[in-house]
């Protein structure tokens, strides 16, 4: 069996499921946040901070960033394996993108922690 | 004549006319999904930076709001939301295709074209909302 060591899941089927599950979470988060901003116009600091100070919103935000890490990891792997045939370059690019997504998660934890 | 020999001798195009070759709508839908995804991976960095500033203090929130008076920032936000809209609607199309629908050539092309229209309408609506 050919294993895809650079991807997130342990198999193609695992990747397939993870990509869709994380996509659904990201869709829900995006729709909720755009809907919230659109419905609470004019948006004030009190409303905005009040939203992110609640535990469910903190969990939702971190859940979305974890989903982003998984979704971007698999998505970038799919794009890079198609367009970058050079293994060394592909490995470097995959590393950069995954570290970026991981940094987003770390930043997100710090941001919602303090609210 | 052998079947394989017939295949070799039948009429084939002698060259590919690159000016006449067009990507089908499904291929354009696919590549745009990839491009919009990669764009958003960079965009999340900007959005997290804005989220951090807007949540730390009332002054930070006001500074983020005044940032969007800038035409360039409006344009960047509009671009991010356009990419998000396209990727989101394209993702929903993918989920529907996972259930076995829209997998034929005609339905696949039709759903790809419908995606372009929906994403375009979303982009225009978001543009009006921002400005």
TrEMBL record, chain A:
Pathway: Carbohydrate metabolism; tricarboxylic acid cycle. Its cofactor is heme. It comes from the Bacteria. It is found in: Cell inner membrane. Keywords: Cell inner membrane, Cell membrane, Electron transport, Heme, Iron, Membrane, Metal-binding, Transmembrane, Transmembrane helix, Transport, Tricarboxylic acid cycle. The chain crosses the membrane at residues 17-38, 59-80, 92-113. InterPro entries: SQR/QFR_C/D, Succ_DH_anchor, SuccDH_FuR_B_TM-su. It is a multi-pass membrane protein. It holds the Pfam family Sdh_cyt. NCBIfam families: succ_dehyd_anc (TIGR02968). Membrane-anchoring subunit of succinate dehydrogenase (SDH). PANTHER family: SUCCINATE DEHYDROGENASE HYDROPHOBIC MEMBRANE ANCHOR SUBUNIT (PTHR38689). This is Succinate dehydrogenase hydrophobic membrane anchor subunit. It comes from Shewanella intestini. The lineage of its organism: Bacteria, Pseudomonadati, Pseudomonadota, Gammaproteobacteria, Alteromonadales. The gene is sdhD.
UniProtKB/TrEMBL annotation, chain B:
Pfam families: Sdh_cyt (PF01127). It is a multi-pass membrane protein. Its main location: membrane. PANTHER family: SUCCINATE DEHYDROGENASE CYTOCHROME B560 SUBUNIT (PTHR10978), SUCCINATE DEHYDROGENASE CYTOCHROME B560 SUBUNIT, MITOCHONDRIAL (PTHR10978:SF5). Membrane-anchoring subunit of succinate dehydrogenase (SDH). Belongs to the cytochrome b560 family. Part of an enzyme complex containing four subunits: a flavoprotein, an iron-sulfur protein, plus two membrane-anchoring proteins, SdhC and SdhD. The complex can form homotrimers. This is Succinate dehydrogenase cytochrome b556 subunit. It comes from Shewanella intestini. The gene is sdhC.
